[in-house]
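QUALITY CONTROL LOG
STEP: pairwise intake check
CHECKER ROLE: data steward
CRITERIA: each record must contain a sequence immediately followed by its structure tokens, with no blank fields

ENTRY 1 OF 2
RESULT FIELD BELOW
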Amino acid sequence: MNPNAQPYNGRMRQSKRLLVFAPGWLALTCLTAAAADLAPTGTLRATFLAGNPVQATIDTSTGAISGPAADIVKELARRAGVPYTITPSNGAKELIERLNAHTADIGFLAWEADRARLVDFSGPYLLMGTTYLVPAASPIRTAADADRPGVKIGAVDGNSPTIYLQQHLKNAKVILWTAAPPFEEMLKMFASGQVDAYAGNRARLVEAADRYPGLRVAQDNFTLLEQNIVVQKGDAAKLRIVNDFLDEARASTFLRDSLIRAKLAGVEAPPAKTR
């Protein structure tokens, strides 16, 4: 990992209280209130970005969803005493629209300033490494190698790694795509010189390099990006419940254990909140 790479959106939210369930009727009252705030329809409805293995994966044969997002939703629902659903969204725009249309209660998304004007973000539940996929024979070995005059970097418009590069690259040029091409097509683009590298999350790029011998991943990350939970804008009660849970999860092994089960490359559990 690049020792200078820091979470550019590191905004460890400071939760103002912990949710404590007292004995007897008070516990029941707290639980009922938490359930109503978290899942107003009686079911916790969650959504995540389809195709982002850092959040969750979908078993193609069974449709089962697993990964950190699924683990978090399951535990939040268990604590609130409600059932849950978790469904994929095709991009950040659709995910945000679902939240603001009240067809989803929580979503999973990386923080960005423009997005934060539309929804409210929790503290992080993981830190995602972002780096470059390059041809096996490429002179690009590290993230710094890519930021040179004449280097063309393919990236998906609106994705968090793309936004970071648009704000921070000094010499290389970002080539925007509406969607990532198949990796077979990307190999042809590399060979023809259309692009020299592709920017994305390390977990996804490591999977691609394992499948295609003509590809490899840069040695380090150009940054770490927070992955967060989002709620409807102004929903302070729901955000407080989520942040209280994440405070506990970061202080325990919950998130680290989830990442181990998911076998994610280049992903870290955030540190516990400093008190």
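ENTRY 2 OF 2
RESULT FIELD BELOW
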Amino acid sequence: METWEISLRVKYDYPFIEISSRYPGARISMWCVWNREMLHVPMGHENLMEELEEYAKNLNLTFEKHQRSSDGIVLTMKDSCEVLDSIWNIAERNNCSLVHPAVYLDGWGYFKIISFSENDTKKLFAELPRKGPNELLSKKVVHIDAVPSNIWVETFFEQLTDKQIDAIVKAFDYGYYRSPRDITTDSIATSLGITRSTYEEHLRKAENRLMEALLPYLKIFRAGGRKREEMVTSHIEVSSLDA
């Protein structure tokens, strides 16, 4: 059985897509976690925030949490999938899984979807045109064993350049992140045949982009559900029952 990883963009009547068209370059990212939606809005877009709040109000939804991060604003609200027919619903109807985050940018919705059969993939694409213009960005077969790691790897690393990847891998391999530190950036740069300032620029950009990719998931983990102690207690109780 083949597993398909599909990247596409769609333009249809959906509030986040419509709002993004009025703010060129403003990348709105959305994660669905259980019955909640978490949004990340980049810095410097106060008017965009006002529109999002008005959108939520019109759906009888409210922003539950609203917190400023280093590069924007993170907010959560109740899931709107029951109110709006979104790509999430289409994927679910066709036995496909949507990989988070969805991105709304310049009047388009960008999505990554996992399909577990060619037939489901065909049904998905048969339904998409009913929503509006759509464009297939990539479609590839992924071995089922690679699906979890492939999804996370692309989410975290797709914004890194080859030089930035090389810089951070070398830093790790040479012991730069050990405590105490085994090597200096000057020594790594010399081994690579580049200046220290050039190497440090690649390294810092790599670190920043990795943190930008990782932090939304960390915030979900911090904000979600029960406290860790409660989770541990629950696990112990379940283990006792199994015994």
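INTAKE CHECK: passed for both entries
DESCRIPTIVE NOTE, ENTRY 2: The radius of gyration is 21 Å.
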